[in-house]
Automatic annotation (TrEMBL):
Biased composition (Basic and acidic residues): 490-500
Protein name, entry field: Spore germination protein
Transmembrane regions: 292-314, 388-406, 418-443
Keywords: Membrane, Transmembrane, Transmembrane helix
Ranges where the record places region Disordered: 480-500
Family membership noted in the UniProt record: Belongs to the GerABKA family.
A single Gene Ontology CC term: membrane
Species classification: Bacteria, Bacillati, Bacillota, Clostridia, Eubacteriales
Superkingdom, taxonomy of origin: Bacteria
GO biological process: spore germination
Pfam families: GerA (PF03323)
Amino acid sequence: MENRVVATQLENNKNFIKSKLGNSGDITFRDFYIPMFGEKKAFVVYIDGLIGSPEIEDVLLRPLMSRKNEYINPEDSNALDLLISKGIISKSVDKSKDLEKLLDSLLSGDTIVFIDTMDQGMIISTRVFQMRSIAEPINEASLRGPKDSFIENIRSNTSLIRRRIRDYDLRFDAIKIGKRTKTDVVLAYIDTLVNKEILKEVNERLSRIEIDAVLDSAYIEEMIEESSYTMFPQIEITERPDKACASILEGKIVIIVDNSPVTLILPTVFWQFFQAAEDYYERFQVATFMRWLRVIALFLSMTLSSIYVMLVSFHQEMLPTPLALKIAASREGVPFPSIMEAFFMEFMFELMREAGLRMPKPVGQAVGIVGALVVGEAAVTAGLVGPLLVIFVAGSAISSFAIPAYNTSYSLRLTRFFILFCTGMFGILGFLGSGIFITLHLVSLKSFGVQFLGPLDPFIARGKKDMLFKAPLWSMKGRSSIFKPQDSNRQAKDGNKPEP
């Protein structure tokens, strides 16, 4: 858009707006006169649906059109400032000569006022959006802890964080991304905690984004992550304000995107995907047990089908004789090799899971449960697969649901097929080789300069208290040094251990 300044002739400004925005039905112009300004002619322009009609009438039109106000000489150098202070009662008023800035505010839901012979336009805050109410998290439900979640309104989301963190150093840096959408993006962090080098890197990556539209935080995630071709996410996502606040208090950065209920947390390490918000509201013994349960679920999710193929096709000697005979008897008459059985069943289970997600909720649940039972039973009865394989595949599918981060569970589902293929080709060598390859790949990943497998690689002792183990809260005196926060102390050095 060419940089134009406000003209002193009203019609010129009106024609400019119409030439840029066209004859859209939701753009409303309203002409009126201002008695306190010597009957100067003016007009307001706003977008119907983005503003509240009572706001326009009560804070703008009625005060300006009243004849009871004190007269202001429009020739005075500060006439516009006097008009704002005496005739407009809006909570926020700004003025600008830049038509581009005025149009951007108009498209964001503000009301713009132009007055004849004045070379500046006024921006009146009248934003009122239709939005859903704050409800319980859908994808990160917990039995204990706060029950609110982020919504699609960026101001509501920043207020949820501000309510929890009343620190003078809490910052919300706002930028706009998207040539056409001009989406509001906010970086939330604590200025005296965050690593300045990481903050600078995040700002640089965001400033390099040149794209037409940003419709969700996923657009930002894909544009700023370190490695684009890996299937493992390097940025944690959450819809829980308490989880976002906990990350900010650790010295991390939270990115909030307007029109998206999902925020981004960075930098991120691999172990965060196995930590649920509920871990910090339960006793540390329970939280530690649940974390190890999730790690076991991770291993089973990726390897159960591969273990079946490896034992049945390559290494029957590893099985006890009675079990080997039972498996051989159950597979009698199955016309396909075990690798084809496993791929067939894994594919069918993934297909039913995806169909259940895309269908209406009541129907989708029925399809997922009944479909799995019917297909599994029918496949065994028809002699296409062995009954033991159905147990292994079902166990693998159930294990993937135990991972708190659903975007990580998608990665595990893809990894499962890779390990299964390698095992089907080379037996135990393929099984171990694929595992080593995935581990080396994870070691090579970074998230904004932070090692993805830290604090295990590199080894940092302080970070171990909140990794696979959840230490008592009173014993976690310092923040993990892997993120290099400015202040490493979380609580008093002598601790808060309860004593009789």
